[in-house]
Design a protein that fits this description.
Chain B: Heterodimer of an alpha and a beta subunit. Chain B: Belongs to the F-actin-capping protein beta subunit family. Chain B: It is found in: Cytoplasm, Cytoskeleton. The complex is a heterodimer. Chain A is α+β, with helices and mostly antiparallel strands. Chain A has six helices and eleven strands. Chain A folds into three domains: about 55 residues, 2-Layer Sandwich (Ribosomal protein S3 C-terminal domain), CATH 3.30.1140.60; about 55 residues, F-actin capping protein, alpha subunit (Ribosomal protein S3 C-terminal domain, 2-Layer Sandwich), CATH 3.30.1140; about 140 residues, F-actin capping protein, beta subunit (Aspartate Aminotransferase, domain 1, Alpha-Beta Complex), CATH 3.90.1150. In chain A, the strands form three sheets. Chain A has a five-stranded antiparallel beta sheet. In chain A, helix 1 packs parallel to helix 3 and helix 4 packs across helix 5. The radius of gyration of chain A is 27 Å and the shape is flat. Helix content of chain B is about 40%, strand content about 30%. Chain B has six helices and ten strands, in the order H-H-H-E-E-E-E-E-H-E-E-E-E-E-H-H. In chain B, the strands form three sheets. A five-stranded antiparallel beta sheet of chain B has the order 6-7-8-9-10. In chain B, about 35% of the residues are buried. The chains are: A alpha+beta, B alpha+beta. Chains A and B meet through helix 1, helix 2, helix 4, strand 8 and strand 9 of A and helix 1, helix 2, helix 4, strand 8 and strand 9 of B.
């Protein structure tokens, strides 16, 4: 494997990192590749891809809240310049270091005046929804450049507990299209448990929620709270479905893979297992070790 | 610098269990010199093979591999055939045949299906080692039904000391569960545990009854553990991330309770 293939392999490992373990994976990869120079340059695009896909959170410079790093938050760098990220809530953009996860160089951003009232209303409803269902959640609500009827709601909740060898991440994203009267969404859940083992839950669910006629851009605050009520209902349904699936996998699949005890409800009598076999062989005329 | 193999093992403990084969092969390509260390320490899903001589299915893993060929426990033959493939000494092969029969009975009683295989090999110090394998897969008849597979890999070493034998057992169980209907749910991984024990030995067959009991104990323990981790721990983390009930309502209730307690104290 040449150097560039090794870096590509390293990038694929990084993209598979469980929640909150990208640094551990990076340390392992550095040790395995042992070529920091080509690695440093080569894995940066992978780190960026990972951060955007995983809704990594940034401490917004100059404010108390956090915002989501994602494709929707990205402001393309002009003329080869580096990408910046938008926090619509504080209306600033910032530089983001994809390795250290630090935000810097805050600059004010003028929001689209047509889209802003509805976006702000969605944001406020999203934050109160976040507060009522997520323990440590972060949400960002983005307007779509050049449109005043399309918005993206993103939610992420992380729990990292390396001391007890587990971590988890809930991501959801909803593209609200007021013109098409539909919300297209997806929910992604990842859990990693790794005490003397490696067990992972990975779920993906796409959702389509039709919008009732009462939801219009002209009455932002009522529409926004109705929209979030719909999302709340769908996420609740999904979580219940997940719970039912757990039940089914535990009660049916797990049990039919392996019984807790044999049908006799007793552990095996090993002397008899051997005895039976030997007895059967001896009663036959074939040699002791003949294939039964 | 930390040991390279440690880094590889740590990495494999973190990356998705559903992609273990792809990731192990990538690591082997990156560090070919460490291929044996890696293949010997990372458990991969067992492969099903069919014995050409008997038509019977057996399990293939790193322990019955010689080059590109795998040895069948039923016919003792390698597939593709090898002229000089490693086989156990005749005495150990006799024990291997009996062990395969005994653990096949065990498999039927606990798994009610699936495939088992036992492989033994001689150790340089006079003792012997072996691996006991079980695999069972469930393929759903409808899309909404979950699929599942269970792979057990029990690696042991036996050292005779007079009328006693000392056994070391390392057991890994890989369990994969999944539903693909309206959305994907995949719950998969592996857990590993070790144990050691001294047991009396009267004859060669004592090794089978001793190992049988140890493996049975271990699987019972690990099945409980898997149940707890798969359906308890990972589910709890999901509920830690998001609550179905409104947390706002819970907070208000707590406030109200506090007020009531304060009121009653007055």
């Amino acid at each position: 494997m040449d150097s560039s293939e090794r870096v590509q392999a390293a990038a694929r490992f990084l993209l598979q990192s469980p929640p909150g373990e990208i640094n551990d994976v990076l340390n392992d990869v550095r040790n395995i590749i042992s070529d920091d120079d080509s690695l440093q340059e080569g894995v940066l695009p992978a780190l960026q891809e990972y951060n955007l896909a995983q809704f990594i959170i940034a401490d917004v410079p100059g404010s108390e809240h956090q915002s989501i790093i994602s494709e929707a938050a990205k402001i393309e760098g002009q003329e080869g310049g580096e990408d910046r990220f938008l926090d619509p809530r504080s209306k600033i953009s910032f530089r983001f270091d994809h390795l250290s996860l630090e935000a810097s160089d805050a600059q004010p951003v003028e929001p689209d005046s047509e889209a802003e009232p509805f976006r702000a209303a969605l944001e406020s409803s999203t934050l109160s929804y976040l507060n009522s269902h997520f323990n440590e959640g972060v949400a960002s609500v983005f307007a779509t450049p050049g449109s005043s009827s399309k918005f993206t709601i993103q939610i992420v909740a992380n729990k990292y507990n390396p001391t007890n060898f587990w971590s988890g991440r809930w991501r959801s994203e909803y593209v609200v299209d007021l013109a098409q009267k539909v919300i297209s969404g997806r929910i992604l859940v990842n859990v990693h448990y790794y005490e003397q083992g490696n067990v992972q839950l990975e779920t993906k669910q796409n959702l389509t929620i039709p919008l009732p006629p009462a939801i219009t851009p002209s009455n932002p605050s009522t529409s926004a709270s109705k929209l979030l009520a719909l999302i709340e209902e769908e996420e609740g349904k999904y979580q219940t479905h997940l719970s039912d699936s757990y039940q089914e996998m535990s009660d049916k699949t797990f049990k039919s893979l392996r019984r807790a005890l044999p049908l006799t409800r007793q552990k095996i009598e090993w002397d008899r297992v051997l005895g039976y076999k030997l007895g059967a062989e001896l009663s036959g005329s074939k040699g002791v070790f003949a294939e039964s | 610098m930390t040991d390279l193999v440690d880094s590889m093992l740590d990495l494999m403990r973190r990356l998705p269990p559903t992609r273990v084969e792809e990731n192990v092969s990538a690591l082997v390509n990156i560090c070919p010199d460490y291929a044996d260390d890696l293949l010997g320490s990372v458990d991969q899903p067992l492969k099903l093979k069919t014995d050409r001589a008997t038509g019977r299915e057996y399990l293939a893993c790193d322990y019955n591999r010689d080059g590109e060929s795998y040895r069948s426990p039923w016919s003792n033959e390698y597939d593709p055939p090898l002229d000089d493939g490693t086989v156990p000494t005749p005495k150990l092969r006799q024990l291997e045949i009996k062990a395969n029969e005994a653990f096949d009975t065990y498999r039927e009683m606990y798994f009610e299906g699936g495939v088992s295989s036992v492989f033994l090999w001689d150790l340089d110090d006079g003792g012997f080692a072996g691996v006991v394998l079980f695999k069972k897969s469930l393929n759903p008849s409808t899309a909404s039904e979950p699929s599942g597979s269970w792979d057990s890999i029990h690696v042991f070493e036996a050292a005779e000391r007079g009328r006693q034998a000392h056994y070391k057992l390392t057991s890994t169980i890989m369990l994969e569960l999944g539903i693909k209907s309206s959305g994907d749910i995949s719950l998969s991984g592996s857990m590993t545990r070790q144990t050691e024990q001294d047991c009396p030995v009267q004859n060669q067959e004592s090794h089978i009854t001793n190992m049988g009991r140890m493996i049975e104990e271990m699987e019972i323990k690990m099945r409980n553990l898997l149940q707890e981790v798969y359906f308890g721990k990972t589910r709890d983390v999901v509920y830690d991330l998001r609550s179905i009930e409104s947390l706002e309502r819970q907070r208000r209730q707590r406030e109200l309770q506090k007020e009531l307690v304060g009121f009653m104290k007055r």
